[in-house]
Design brief:
The protein is mostly beta strands. It folds into two domains: about 130 residues, Jelly Rolls (Sandwich); about 45 residues, no CATH class. It contains one helix and 15 strands, in the order ββββββββββββββαβ. Strands 1, 4, 5, 7, 8 and 10 form a six-stranded antiparallel β-sheet that branches. The longest helix is centred in the C-terminal third of the chain and has 4 residues.
Length: about 190
């Protein structure tokens, strides 16, 4: 695991680990992974380094099962990384499938505090992956509309302008423009006699 992360094993030796597997990582080439071979019943913890929470911060991460489905619980501790310190559950994710899903939780209740976040997994089928864990403010991007100085057309004609090519936004996978009334205008001048 990266520096500062803590793992707790239930004693079977099958622990959370940082594996190199670009085909199973949500992004990049490494991912946190834990697995188990039944009939052992695995129950392991992956715990973040201490995080200082600011007002408006959220926990955001991606997770999925390796095969079939798995469950994952997420806890917060304000006192340390011992298992007994994690008494506040903030998420209970059930029946996670093999496609990555993003989850988030608002941490405003902990603003001004230092916390640890614990991911607790009890084996259902085989294994689970957690990737791209972050705590912070949501990224807000305000698209900019870069219109030309003028549009030219002849009197008596109508003008249709698709504004989509003029919208500038920072690269984000979920950036979109919706609403036909926002992206397409039709303007027909009136004859002023």
């Amino acid at each position: 695991m990266p520096a500062g992360w803590t793992i707790h094993d239930d004693g079977d030796g099958m622990t959370w680990r940082n594996i190199y597997d670009p085909s199973h990582a949500h992004s990049g080439s490494r991912v946190a992974f834990v697995d188990n071979y039944l009939p052992n019943q695995n129950a392991d913890w992956l715990i973040t380094p201490q995080v200082n929470v600011n007002a408006g911060d959220s926990l955001v991460f991606w997770t999925r099962s390796w095969i079939s489905s798995e469950n994952l619980k997420v806890f917060v501790s304000t006192t340390g990384t011992a298992i007994g310190n994690f008494s506040t559950q903030i998420l209970n994710l059930q029946e996670l499938g093999t496609t990555y899903q993003q989850f988030s939780h608002n941490l405003s209740a902990y603003a001004g505090q230092s916390i640890y976040i614990g991911f607790f997994w009890e084996c259902e089928e085989y294994g689970i992956l957690v990737d791209d864990v972050r705590v912070g403010q949501p990224l807000v991007i305000t698209p900019e509309l870069n219109l030309p100085e003028s549009f030219t057309f002849n009197q008596g004609e109508s003008l249709e302008v698709d504004f989509t090519p003029f919208i500038v936004a920072t690269e984000l996978s979920n950036t979109s423009l919706s609403g036909s009334q926002l992206s397409m205008w039709r303007w027909q001048p009136r004859d002023r006699r």
